[in-house]
Each structure stands twice: as structure tokens, then as C-alpha cells.
Amino acid sequence: MKVDLEVKIGQTSLKSPILTAAGTSGHGAELGAFGDLGKLGAITVKSLAVFPWSGNRPVRVAPIGRDMINSVGLQGPSIKTWSEKYLPGIEKCGAKAVVSIWGRNISEFREAAMEVSNIAEDSESIIAIEVNASCPNLENRKRIFSHDKEVTKELVSEVKSRSGYLPVWIKLSPNTPDIVDIGGAAVERGAEVLVLTNTLVGFAIDTDSGKPVLGNKYGGVSGHALHSVAVRAVNECRLEFPKVGIVGVGGVFDAKDAIEFMMAGANAVGIGTALFKNPRAPWKILNGMVSYCEDKQIQHIKDLNLIDEK
Ligand SMILES: Cc1cc2nc3c(=O)[nH]c(=O)nc-3n(C[C@H](O)[C@H](O)[C@H](O)COP(=O)(O)O)c2cc1C
Question: What domains are there in the chain, each with its CATH number?
Fold first, then answer.
């Protein structure tokens, strides 16, 4: 039996349900050294702004048990530089790209959306804009954009107004009890896909020195610790919004983790921390999902999603 790997998320068809998560596989086609990026649903580019950004002071990434804590601080080139230096490599290997954007205020997000949509007019690789709404809003006491319903509404409306034909995806923070309401606010204003979730805020201390392990003190916890939290977020949002596209992200290390996300209601799954252990993880996970479908006589991988989307 040949398993059909195609999935639909919002209005977009993906070759397979496996994506890379923003910020975990570089800015372009770096991962192409380990497998065929054209076989993945898409790569999600590390969050970009209209300006270059140097990020936080080191140490930026540290292991915590089996997991990771990071405060990279969105370091990266400007969108324009990215399009000149990295996009050609993505196009060359036939990969699709979801471009994650960030800003310090809503108008910087709007500018970023406009730049990405202009670039996308000449690139078949770019399939969506992902709004990284889990960063601090400098105009609102540094509150995280997606911790506030009204701010999320305005953010999505403004990005949508400049995103041209590109669908708008939004990546939400799990550090709020209101993720379903916030997701609803984003959907109401036209977000086609909810990406669930970004990292959990944590703190790790080096007990020899008594100092924080990260230069920035607090950071984002990713990996196994996040998995059930993200599966719950996916399930709650799926039950509330039967038709919206959902990407599950958080602690996917093997095919079982990815299948669990789909059973909870995700249409696609993002791989992040697992890439630091094994850069071939996306292909290994996809192959594992195919074997599972073969064993269970499931012909279309999208049918792993147990929740009826009608
Ligand atoms: C080193 C590192 C950098 C990240 N950078 C970004 C980023 O630029 N934008 C973003 O939306 N998420 C970023 N994330 C969050 C991941 O995309 C993902 O949501 C999170 O790590 C949970 O998935 P995982 O447990 O599979 O890693 C980053 C995560 C890590 C570990």
C-alpha cells in the first residue's frame, strides 16, 4: 500500500505533514545536507524582522536534562538580506518555506509582512507568513503580543492587510491560560493556521556557580517537557475551531509524538529541538509515520487526524 502523504492546512496543500519549527534549522536550506527538503511539508525560517538583529548575550542555548532552554533573542539578518542570501538556496532544492516574522511593535510586523509578500511575488517557495506572536510588545510594557486578545486581533488584522495573497499563520505562546481565546481572536481576524506552540518560559541555575545558565537569565524551554502542554493546546483549539489549520509543535522526537499531535487534531507537525540531537529527525519521523499507516492500513496520512473536520 502506498500511503498518500499530502495534507491540507488552511487553503494550502503540503507534500507531507512534517515541517521544521522556526529557529531550529537555520535561516535557509542548511538542513538540506541531511535529507531532501523538498519531501517535507515546508521549512519554517527563523523569525525575521525588517532590520538585522544581534539577539541576546551569550550563553544563549543550554541543555536541561533531556531538553533545552534558549534565549537566542531572535538574532538574524533583515528580511531583505535573507531574501538575497538564503532564499535562493531554499528555491534551488525545491523546498517550500513558511517565513516567520517578528517586530517590536505592530507597525514593524506590518512592514515585515509587506516585505515578505513583495518577495513572495517572485518566489514559488514562500507559502505563508508565520506571525511570531510570542515575542514582547515594546509598546505595551513588554507584554507578549499573544497574551492579549485585543492586541492579537490588531496584530493579525495589520499583518493581513499587508500580506497580499499569502496566508497568515500565527504562532502562539503557551504561557497564558487563554490560548483558546487568543487563538479565536486570531482566527476571527483572518489567521488561517494556528501554530501551537512556542516555548514555555523557564529558568535554569548552574548550581556550581550559583548563576543563571543563560546570559539573559530566563529562557524558553523546549523539548519533551513541552509536548503534552502543546498536545493539549492543539486539542482544545481543534475542538473549538473545527475548520482552522493547526500545526502542533513541541517535543516531537519520534513518529509516535507526531501521530499524537495529529490524533489531537493537528494537520501538520513541526520539529524543533529534536534537530539538535539528530538533524535527520524530520525524515526519520516521516518514515515512521508511513510505517504506522501501513501497519494500520491507513491510506491517507491526513486521516491520522481523528477529529472529524466537517
Ligand atoms: C534555539 C531555538 C530557537 C528558536 N527560535 C525561534 C524563532 O526564531 N521563532 C519562533 O517562532 N520560535 C522559535 N523557537 C521555538 C520553536 O520553533 C518551537 O516552537 C519550540 O522549540 C518547541 O518545539 P520543540 O520542542 O520541538 O523544540 C526556537 C526554539 C529553539 C530551541
Answer: 7-55+72-201+221-304 (3.20.20.70)
